Sequence to fold (70 residues):
Amino acid sequence: MVRLGGTASASHMEVFQGLEILFRRQGIDLDWVLYSGYDSMVEAFVRGEIDLAWNGPLSHVKMKRLAAEG
Fold:
């Protein structure tokens, strides 16, 4: 099971539904987890609660910094 995190926006939810179909066609179960903001998603990724994060450049930098500290 792959857990994909992202913010709870209408466009992200639409993308996640499509990704779920693509992953399942490859035999991979995908579960998506929605967050109210990027900071909570970044923290969840660094803690290992999600495997992938649908994020932007600033969130990517935050993830790298937090991962390097931990």
Summary: The longest helix spans residues 10-25. The helical segments are 10-25, 38-47, 57-69.
